[in-house]
Every structure is written in C-alpha cells, then in structure tokens.
Amino acid sequence: MTSTPxxxxxxxxxxxxxxxxxxxxxxxxxxxxxIDGLKTSNENKFTSLExxxxxxxxxxxTKHKAEIKDLKEKVESLAINLKMTNKKLESGAPAxxxxxxxxxxxxxKGLKALDxxxxxxxxxxxxxxxxxxxxxxxxxLKILGKDHNIYxxxxxxxxxKKQIMINKRRILDGSRIYIKNDLTALQASEMHNLRLASxxxxxxxxxxxxxxxxxCIEDKWMQWDEDLGELRETQTPIHNxxxxxxxxxxxxxxxxx
Length: 257
Known about the structure:
5 helices; single chain; 8 strands; 55% helix; alpha+beta; Alpha-Beta Plaits; 4-stranded antiparallel β-sheet
C-alpha cells in the first residue's frame, strides 16, 4: 500500500498565519497597554483619595487641637480668677471694710506743707473751691508724710470725688500737684506693678491704656496678679470708656523681675 505524501505549506497559508499571529500580538499589546493605563489611573485616583483623606484628618486634628488649647486657656483663666476670688474672701471683712472706707478718700500731693490741721483744712478748702468750684466738700483731713505735704481727704460723697477725678488732669495740667485714690497697701502694690508692666509693653510699641486697676494692651484686658507676679487676662471692665471688649486671641505675660 502506497502512503499519501503530506502536502507542504503554501506561501499563501504561511502569510495568513503570520497575519493572524501579528494581529494576536497587536491585540495582546493593546490589551496590556489598556491594563497598564487602568492601573495608572486607579493608582492616581487612589493616591488622590488618600491625600484627601489625610488632609481631612489633619484638618480635624488641627481644629480639635485648637479647641483643646482654647479650652485649656479658659480653664487656666478660670482657675486663676477663682484663686484671686478665694484670696479676697480669705482676707476677710476687715480688708473689704477698709476698701469701702477709702472709696470717698483722695490723696493730694504737691501742695505746700502745713503742720496745723485747722490751717490745712482752710487751705484745702480754698484749693478745692478755686480749682474745682467745690465748697465744704470734705468731712475729714489728715496730714501725711515726713514733710507734711501729703493730704488725705475724706469727701462728702462719691459724686464729689467723681467730679474731682474726672477734671483733675485738665485743671492741674502743667502743675506738680497730683490727686490720687486712697489705696490699700495691696492695691497700691498692684497698681505699681501694673504701671511698670504697662510701661514695658508700651516701650516695645504696644498700644496700652490704663483703666482703674486694669490695663488694655493691644485690645486685650489684663490685670496684675500679685501671687504669680505677672499680668494675666481678665474680664472687660463694666462700662469702660475705652469701649474695648476682651479678645482672647493670644495671651500676654509680663513677669516681675
């Protein structure tokens, strides 16, 4: 039996096979490119999403840290105010009574020295009448100081004192006569340190304004704390003429040397 010989591949058949293989390779390359493109796109999307999530977390953490810091500052301020209140309560009624008794008092410095109380009374009466248009406006007078040129005067009422204190700067401008409140030793120490601290801040270019026993530094109200030896944030004075409310944006501190 004679076997049938295998037909050899024709040039046309080989060309068709090459075409098919090339098409398959092109398809595979195109598919790989698409897959790589999808991978890159997804990676970019994932990175973008990851960045957004990270930024959001950072924003929340920053906000909470600021809130916690603000809360801590408020708690510290309340603790200091409570400490000062307790200190005032512990000082008892005598100190409070002492302050009340001094409310209508004024201290006058810079007038001529007089030893005789009666002569001094007439002299101060004339001074207040001429300068402030006030007649017989005080109940008591004491001569103080080793040179007998300081006078502590108890006025008849707070309205008289208000009139003197409001107009003293204008009336006594250019003279070496000074009228001040009659302060307790503690109040005098606080005011002394308050003025020193205020002067220091003012020398550094800060906007400073004293009002009673408080000072407004760069629109922030401060008060001297004797225990801490520094200025601490305090409440806005009621009916203050400056019209400046508290601004707790930043804390100022001036420690006593």
